[in-house]
Amino acid sequence: MLWGRCWRVGARLRGLRGGLQAPAESGRRGVVSCIDPSTGLNEEQKEFQKVAFDFAAREMAPNMAEWDQKELFPVDVMRKAAQLGFGGIYVRTDVGGSGLSRLDTSVIFEALATGCTSTTAYISIHNMCAWMIDTFGSEEQRHRFCPPLCTMEKFASYCLTEPGSGSDAASLLTSAKRRGDHYVLSGSKAFISGGGEADIYVVMCRTGGPGPKGISCIVVEKGTPGLSFGKKERKVGWNSQPTRAVIFEDCAVPVANRIGDEGQGFLIAMRGLNGGRINVASCSLGAAYASVILTRDHLKVRKQFGEPLASNQICNQALQMHGGYGYLKDCAVQQYMRDSRVHQILEGSNEVMRILISRSLLQE
Fold first, then answer.
1. Which listed site, 16, 87, 180, 320, has its alpha carbon 20 to 30 Å from 108?
2. CA–CA dist 191, 71 (Å, integer)
3. Which of 233, 307, 347, 364 is catalytic?
């Protein structure tokens, strides 16, 4: 069956380095579009990429459908990924990170996402949290929190969005009132990836007045009295990672868990997102690459009007090219589409990203 074949092809993504024959237009000869993801990389980056592709094909792609359908959080597989250095890719080496560059990180996430986009997206969020602590935390905090995050013995969640503040993150209301050597947190966060399963919550909360300068960053550990979670959300995609509200009810957290200075939290959150947006974009590229590979092979064998679909100009999107088979849950391409759709919303919606780009251009 073709849909069964889709998954088998997905498991063979590693090592496929072909070209895609585009249909001829206006009488011109067909053009070969290069889809080799290693183009432009140095030898070391190609090695990182190969390790990530191998892991994605061996550990993730065969399980991707089951994780999605049963909504399983693949803790053991993510810890295997951490053994390869993927738990703290751009965290410094003295606390267990791999110390790689942002470009190296992007290459790795793109390759991993071919195996499971949803799981890779969570790993990218976890990496972002570890980097925030590594970059803005004290030496004591770095050595306390980062080593178990880099091994993924512990998992992390990023807590910024609230029921009443999404794109306008600076208007958040979760408060943290200082009482002696503790902050007491009250409020809630919405749509938190890893919520309820993660061990470390990197929380943006209001320690001062309104606006961004009143926000601080505090680490809240699972099991802290006053910390609870909402119901597990039912989502279109990203089903291999749980999403819940994170709730603080007079939740007392040591002042020693504040990352950076009071009032620095919004800056820390935005710096984290600057990298997180690249990470999510890389996951999208990985999903797109996998979809192109699946579609290329499908078009070579699926026939209409007596010849392979690859010879006909009927189609411009990967799922569309699969026809009815692409709409079946047994076919991997529909999952890549579902898992990627949310990338247009989180880490800054497409609309917010356009605003940020325009601001940058106007400042030049």
1. 320
2. 16
3. 347
